[in-house]
């Protein structure tokens, strides 16, 4: 199948960066440039102040890279929206500046979307790696149907930087909510897409090495983070999808009632080496 759609289908990769160590952002960019599917543009929305990061970004001389300098420091949703609005591809792939895309990621995701016109967002399975790049575990996501539908009522249905979605979603007005400056901007987007009836799925294969930051479990399970997630699940309630909306709202409230230690333990287990 390799590059079957290369001439017809452009993929726009949207990456936001801010002062990542030069070696780490270099690994992320190199993993995109090494994809078996070559017809893409890489939009890097950057507001770094670190000279080494800036120098690393400037060192690339590949016509597929479009480096966009921000004149101010912006939160992630704003930077992602800049990239989405500039994207020219039929499909948009998310990528973080500290992760590694496995070589066949774009090839497999494009192939799936080309063959499944009812699916608008496709994710995949991920390896978990530490800050040094050592892969210590994995994270699995349901593939499709009721299992994924139910999963999305209490957790994110995707690993955010491992997703690819149709640009027609963006053309229809689906952008990141820029008021969500702290976290959960991805869950907000996925819930709005689900509630409008668009199909979602995950590939059964690994597509990304996802970098787990130190103390991520504590941050994910913090009181403020849980309150924020509950707020997002309440805010995205839609009468167009009442059952899913209600289950999602209830899940957000239930998490607020669970003892803090129990939630932290759950997240530590999720990211355990």
Can you characterise this structure?
It is built from eleven helices and nine strands. It is globular. A hairpin with a 5-residue loop joins strand 6 (about 120-130) and strand 7. Strands 1, 2, 3, 4, 5, 6, 7, 8 and 9 form a nine-stranded mixed beta sheet that branches. The two termini are about 35 Å apart. The protein has one domain: Alpha-Beta Complex (Spore Coat Polysaccharide Biosynthesis Protein SpsA, Chain A), CATH 3.90.550. It has helices at about 20-35, 50-60, 75-85, 105-115, 145-150, 165-170, 185-195, 215-220, 225-235, 240-255, 260-270; strands at about 10-15, 40-45, 65-70, 90-95, 100, 120-130, 135-140, 165, 200-210. It is of the alpha/beta class.
Helices and strands in order, then pairings?
Blueprint: E1 11-17, H1 22-33, E2 40-46, H2 51-58, E3 65-69, H3 76-86, E4 91-94, E5 100-101, H4 105-115, E6 119-129, E7 135-139, H5 145-151, E8 164-166, H6 167-171, H7 185-195, E9 199-211, H8 216-220, H9 223-235, H10 242-257, H11 260-270
Parallel strand pairs: 1-2, 1-4, 2-3, 6-9
Antiparallel strand pairs: 4-8, 5-9, 6-7, 6-8
Mean pLDDT: 90
Give the overall shape, derived from the CA principal axes: globular
CATH architecture heading: Alpha-Beta Complex
Largest sheet: 9 strands, mixed
**Total beta strands:** 9
Oligomeric state as shown: single chain
| Main structural class | alpha/beta
| Domains, number | 1
Helicity level, as a percent range?
40-55%
- Compressed to H and E, one letter per element, the order equals EHEHEHEEHEEHEHHEHHHH
Strand-residue proportion: 15-25%
The first-to-last residue Cα distance is 35 Å
């Amino acid at each position: 199948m390799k590059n079957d759609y290369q001439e017809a289908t452009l993929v726009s990769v949207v990456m936001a960066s801010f002062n990542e160590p030069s070696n780490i952002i270099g690994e992320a960019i190199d993993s995109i440039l090494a994809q078996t599917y070559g017809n893409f543009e890489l939009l890097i929305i950057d507001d770094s102040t670190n000279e080494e990061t800036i120098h690393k970004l400037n060192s690339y001389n590949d016509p597929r890279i479009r480096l966009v300098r921000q004149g101010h420091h912006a939160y992630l949703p704003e930077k992602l929206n800049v990239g989405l609005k500039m994207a020219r591809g039929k499909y948009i792939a998310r990528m973080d500046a500290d992760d590694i895309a496995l070589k066949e990621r774009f090839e497999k995701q494009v192939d799936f979307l080309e063959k499944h016109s009812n699916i608008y967002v496709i994710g995949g399975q991920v390896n978990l790696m530490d800050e040094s790049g050592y892969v210590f575990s994995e994270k699995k996501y349901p593939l499709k149907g009721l299992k994924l539908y139910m999963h999305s009522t209490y957790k994110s249905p995707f690993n955010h930087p491992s997703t690819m979605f149709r640009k027609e979603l963006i053309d229809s007005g689906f952008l990141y909510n820029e008021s969500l400056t702290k976290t959960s901007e991805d869950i907000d987007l996925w819930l709005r897409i689900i509630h409008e009836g668009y199909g979602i799925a995950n590939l059964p294969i690994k597509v990304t090495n996802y970098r787990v930051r130190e103390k991520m479990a504590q941050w994910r399970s913090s009181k403020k983070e849980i309150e924020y997630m509950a707020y997002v699940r309440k805010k995205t309630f839609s009468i167009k999808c009442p059952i899913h909306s209600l289950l999602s709202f209830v899940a957000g409230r239930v998490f607020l009632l669970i003892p803090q230690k129990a939630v932290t333990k759950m997240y530590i287990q999720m990211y355990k080496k």
